[in-house]
Fold this sequence. Notes:
Elements lengths: L2 H13 L2 H8 L3 H15 L4 E4 L2 E4 L1 H26 L6 E8 H18 L3 E8 L1 H9 L5 E4 L8 E15 L20 E5 L4 H12 L8 E6 L2 H9 L5 E4 H10 L3 E2 L5 E10 L6 H13 L4
Parallel strand pairs: 3-4, 3-5, 7-8
Antiparallel strand pairs: 1-2, 5-11, 6-9, 6-10, 6-11
Helix pairs in contact: 1-2, 1-3, 1-4, 2-3, 5-10
Amino acid sequence: MTLDQLRIFVEVAALEHITRAAERLNMTQSAVSAAISALETRHDIRLFDRVGRMIVLNQAGRSFLAEAQAVLNQARVAEAALNDLSGLMRGRLSVMASQTVGSYWLPERLALYRRRYPGIEIAVRIGNSVETSHAVTAGEVEIGVIEWMSDAKELTKSVADIDEMIVVVAPDHPWADGRPRRVENFPEIDWVLREEGSGTRYAFERIITDGGVALESLKVPLIMPENEAVLGAVIAGMGATLLSRSVVKAVLQSGQVRQLNMPAFPRPYYFLRHSQRYRSRAGEAFEALCREQTPAA
Length: 297
């Protein structure tokens, strides 16, 4: 059994599709099929069920998947340790960020990191805050950046930056009249919200709870999984929403939405690191660079 076979198995298991896995791995379809067949033949076990023209991970495959991922994670740690011996001339930075962070905060910092350390391979994933926390816990990525503090005990958390959340509505919305509003007024109108598990949704729930308003008392006709979808629904007149100022900056300037006359809500971004996993020099350099870009309080 080789690491390459494990990598191929994990990719095929994730996609349950030989052709798409081959494209993702930049390999031929025959090479991917041969690697899976060799793994199954050597150990006399079927990891996938062939159902017609489909390939489906079976129970044995699901049991093996967790072990294969653990081995690959450990191999990445070992590789990071070796790369550190050569300084920052080569190595790998693996980062996962929640949607708002990944779309609006992270790109500028990754570009600067790339210019400063051109020999470092950068691997980036985007998910919501819960998915990012789980990926760091499982060792799938070294660093997570999320919009609320994870309560996972094995993770260390430190403030990366301070975001600002604002409430916006369409220009013809009744609350676009400039009159002051407070959280206790929120049950009076419709709301468009992000999905549970997102940092934006968590921030909204914290704000209304602190303001003495129950989520159940609000009218929420629409829940969307992406910031852009939420913003589009607000522009279309579906209701109000709470989003990061960085998300709405362009449409706010263009007049497509209006900010409510109420104070903005500060929200920290957090770095997540596993307390017991290896910290690469590439990861440490990334955190240091990000802190350079964060204005002093």
